[in-house]
Amino acid sequence: MNIERPIPFTCGALDHVLPLHMMIDSSGLVQHAGPTIQKVFANRRLVGRNVFGLLELKRPRNIKRIEDVAKFDAKRVQLKIRDEYGTPVTGAVALMPYMDSVLLNLSFGYSIAEAVARYELTGSDFAPTDLTVEMLYLVEAKSAAMDIASQLAHRLQDEKEVAQTQALTDGLTGLANRRALEARLERQFRRNVPFSLMHLDLDFFKSVNDTHGHAAGDAVLEVVAQILREETRKEDLVARVGGDEFVIVLDNQVFPMRLEKIAARLIKRIEAPIKYRGMDCRISASIGVVSSSNYLKPDQTLMSEEADKALYASKHAGRAAYTIAGYSGKTGNSLTG
Length: 337
Description:
By secondary structure, the chain is an alpha+beta fold. It folds into three domains: 117 residues, Beta-Lactamase, CATH 3.30.450.260; 38 residues; 156 residues, Alpha-Beta Plaits (2-Layer Sandwich), CATH 3.30.70.270. The protein is 41% helix and 23% strand. The strands form three sheets. A six-stranded antiparallel sheet has the order 2-1-6-5-4-3. The chain has a six-stranded mixed sheet with strand order 8-9-7-12-13-14, sandwiched between helices. It has a two-stranded antiparallel ribbon with strand order 10-11. A hairpin with a 5-residue loop joins strand 13 and strand 14. It starts with 10 loop residues before the first helix and ends with a strand. This is Putative signaling protein. GO terms for molecular function: catalytic activity. It comes from Aliiroseovarius pelagivivens.
């Protein structure tokens, strides 16, 4: 007949295979705590403290004393660490009759990820055979994959926004292009908000290219673009639609006298000499303007045609002039505004 005999072991052996364990005596005091439990409690002294002062028993609820814990030999108990986090843990209880003690081995279970972050745990804080280590690797791998995916998503979004901006932007001046203008006009008509359409052509621009070269012409276009930005509001749109052709959408701006002042100011500023490598580049501008308030039912094609007619009237008037369509054929220049 085989008689079971107690197998001697050391606390060091328990610490290695069960780093989350506690040895508790019959009065409920901690006799020994594994290294990971010590780390969880910030390496404070645990030996001699009552286990129920360190851990709150959640289930079974009828346990009040350590003697009651002993009755649940090899059974699971649900506990919560008494700290600022209240981290839940699962405990396996085993009676150690030869030592008059109870062995309580803990596991973080589903709260492992939070516990690792809160208590700064690593793989070495768990038993080598503990599946928690593998879970940690999976959590880290998932976290790394999510970080990479997030970075990729942000990069793709940034690239998409850049591509969308480039698709709607004139490469030289940074102004809106024809596609952006068409989209804005579609929205403008849907909003049913009055606006004016201003067509602007540069005068004598070809002579700048012929005399000083295309680099000078590009420099002049950039200066003109900056002038147009400065003389319009953020709710307006300025677009370059051709080599030296621009269109401005003036939102909620239809009063003829105000439009005259804007056109005259633009011509005056554009006529100022533009420096390029020590040379003066001189140009001017012709402008045609039409307002949506001229029509019972504004039409994009009709308004564009009327703005073009007004622009040609300005050119025929000697250039450096503006024409307000529907305003008694009003034509002026930068000195009459």
